Amino acid sequence: MKKLFVFFLSLSFCFALSQEVDSIKIKELKEVLVVGTKSTLHEKQTKILATLDELLQKSSKVDLIKRGAYAWEPIINGMATERTVITIDGMRIFGACTDKMDPVTSYVEVSNLSEATISSGQQGSSHGNTIGGSIDLKRSQRQFTNAGWEFFVNSGYESNNRQKIIGSAINYADSLFYVDTDVMFRDAENYRAGNNKEIEFSQFRKLNLSATSGYRLAPNKNIEASVIFDRATDVGYPALPMDVSLAEALIASVKFNYKPNLEQIDNWETKLYFNTITHTMDDTKRPDVPIHMDMPGWSDTYGFYSKVNGKYKKHHFLATLNSFYNRSVAEMTMYPSNPNENLMFMYTWPDVRTLYSGIYMEDNFEINCHSNLKVTTNLGFHNNNVASDFGLQSLQIFYPEMEASNSRFLKSISTNYFYNKEGISYGFGMGYGERAPSVSEGYGFYLYNSFDGFDYIGNPNLKNEKSLEGNANIGFKNEKWNTKLSASYFHIYDYIIGIPDASVAPMTIGANGIKVYTALDYATIFSSDFTVSYQISDAWIWKGQFVYNLGKDNKFNGLPFMSPFNYMASLGFRPRKFSLELQVKGNAKQTEYNAFYGEDKTPNYAIINVNCGYKFIFEKSKLMLNTGIENIFDTYYTTYTDWKNLPRMGRNVFMNLMFQF
């Protein structure tokens, strides 16, 4: 095992970490997944009205834990949301569900996004401390142009779950003012897995409203206001014991942008934001419920950031000051079947208030026209305070000496070297980062995990989790070929995980026992991917993507949700207004599973998808038609990220329309 450890560590310094974003000279460790603007979406995606979850799956660094047909949880480098940072236009947002039914990605729509910027490891620390990386969902950004009015109408239908999609957008822009508005509605019934097996409680209904408006105060100053309202109702989660009757978010911000008349400063951006999340779990539609429960949750976040970027000689610098205040509270009320018995109430999140303030600094130094060195550092102050006396007293049953308030300092630093000349690129780097325990890990009270069947209890005495990482890259690009091989390695100290405690009785009927969040001495994660494309001709292109992850704890047992070898290959044909793509995707058998975390061996699978599209142009109007068949052969399959082996969707015929005028 030691030889394998050394091999992985060496390999991580010999191959690539992720795709790069080109600038004139500067290279960065970021992957930009183009979602598309309203006017170019049809040119970027093979399924115009795909959900954001479906689009994120295209990234070699991102996979998603699926508990149903809606609101999948993103994981980066095999690490779930506790170890990552997910933002919308740089805004920190925290879900209100103890079961992770409402990831940040569930509160936006593809119709109002332009791209998702995915950063691996410490390269993603600009918006807060992270271990695995970050995703920043960037909304469509209008410019002060004389574009005038634009109107869009979207419509779609999917046969498998009878999903109906309808939306519209109205935009206006001139030299002093712009406004974008967008609405999208989705309604889906239960989906069917392969062999026409209906998956009960997989329906969902979602409405998303978005508006952004900007005003130019001066040639170098402008102000922008933005709001998102998202409301999902009647959302089924077939892999979980409860569904969701309401998941609602209001996300608002005001941004001031200033371009000083200074040679060294390019831009100064400051944003104030607020968001409030309401989430209500519901079991009233489930048969044979042992005991009915109400489980609402709330999350409110107030925050700001101010960032300055510029250039001094060969130094491209960025400095960001950011802070947020979050309130997270979740309740559980149990209703005994005997009406003469008393109700039982408890806080599963005991009104935890989190205050974070941090400063991030970055220096990208041009060594020469072919290479650069990037150094980043982040220092943050993190404080948790349990505001509920009742919740505090409940946790003090297990931790009698526990204080209501707990403060931490979080640190990170990284350095990366990049080289690119005549189509040959490579790079390598290393980093150190820390994170604080999440609200669930630090203060959760009897949180039931249906994956392994245990109730979980938080631990406020946990240390900061710390990670040493190494990464490297190598790639080649010419007129025909574009290849990139990548790997990264994480050695995580004080790795936070739930460990069984036989001395405590579970609360949930039928639970296997209690797990208390504890820190292992360390855990290791190795992540690798290879992407390749070949331009056969002006109209034909072949693409391939291959990913493998491996995670081990300090006893060399597997960590959960690590990707076995998985692959995707596609052949695309795009002559002018027409597009056609044939795709095959699948993964090998999952053999590195760990039953301790509720995993089992998942079989290999392969599915085939096909889609085509055409763009009609009528003077000043455009009509985009996109249709296709997913899982053509109606294969019944499940993957390593499917909660409790929830089967994926079977054959699905979709049709999307977008009309611009």
What can be said about this structure in brief?
With 661 residues, the chain is mostly beta strands. Helices cover 5% and strands 57% of the residues. It has a 22-stranded antiparallel beta barrel. Strands 1-6-7-4-5 form a five-stranded mixed β-sheet, with no helix packed on it.
Could you characterize the architecture of this molecule?
With about 650 residues, this protein is mainly beta. The longest helix is centred in the N-terminal third of the chain and has 11 residues. It has a single domain, classed as Maltoporin, Chain A. The chain has 5 helices and 33 strands. The chain has a 22-stranded antiparallel barrel.
List its salient traits.
661 residues; mainly beta; Maltoporin, Chain A; 22-stranded antiparallel β-barrel; 5-stranded mixed beta sheet; 33 strands
CATH class: Mainly Beta
What Rg is obtained from the alpha carbons, in whole angstroms?
24 Å
CATH topology: Maltoporin, Chain A
Strand proportion, as a percent range, falls in: over 45%
CATH architecture label: Beta Barrel
Number of helices: 5
Based on DSSP secondary structure assignment, what is the total number of beta strands? 33
Q: State the shape.
A: globular
Output the structural class.
Answer: mainly beta
